[in-house]
């Protein structure tokens, strides 16, 4: 199997080609990737060397990474809201309501009455 696997993968890549995966978070860019990579590297260093300095470095980098991710997500949501507002202002109702669907949470099963051991989902 060890000899067959690389050749099989090589032929599959050549025939089918590689498919680039698209992330579910469009706001996650190079800056986010860099911040997360640095955070992970410092975490691994802290695990290897359990020192206060390594822990402090990791915690500080974790704060920076978290702040970066929050800022990027907030900027993305702000841009989406501005686009929705412009669609609403231009009387493009279908695009407006289509965009609003993305902000609504998925529906959850809600019970009709208090649970008594039987299924009562609506």
Helices and strands, with pairings:
Blueprint (H helix, E strand, L loop, with lengths): L3 H13 L13 H19 L3 H38 L3 H9 L21
Detailed description of the structure:
With 122 residues, the protein is mainly alpha-helical. The chain has a domain of 77 residues. Helix content is 65%, strand content 0%. The chain contains four helices and no strands. The protein starts with a helix and ends in a 21-residue tail after the last helix. This is Transposase. It comes from Ranatra chinensis.
Main sheet summary: none
> Structural class, judged by helices and strands?
mainly alpha
Q: Care to count the β-strands?
A: 0
Query: For the CA atoms, what is the radius of gyration?
Result: 24 Å
Percentage of helical residues?
55-70%
Distance between the termini: 51 Å
> pLDDT average, as an integer?
83
The number of distinct helices, counting runs of at least 4 residues, comes to 4
* Topology as a string of helices (H) and strands (E): HHHH
Low-confidence stretches: none
Strand content: under 5%
Q: What best-fitting shape do the alpha-carbon axes yield? A: flat
């Amino acid at each position: 199997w060890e000899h067959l696997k690389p050749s099989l993968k090589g032929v599959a890549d050549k025939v089918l080609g590689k498919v680039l995966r698209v992330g579910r978070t469009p706001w996650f860019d190079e800056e986010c990737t860099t911040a997360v990579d640095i955070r992970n590297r410092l975490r691994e260093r802290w695990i290897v060397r359990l020192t206060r300095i390594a822990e402090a470095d990791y915690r500080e980098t974790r704060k920076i990474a978290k702040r970066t991710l929050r800022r990027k997500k907030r900027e993305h949501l702000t841009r989406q809201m501005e686009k929705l507002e412009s669609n609403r202002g231009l009387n493009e109702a279908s695009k407006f309501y289509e965009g609003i669907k993305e902000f609504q949470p998925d529906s959850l099963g809600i019970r009709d009455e208090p649970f008594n051991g039987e299924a009562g989902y609506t």
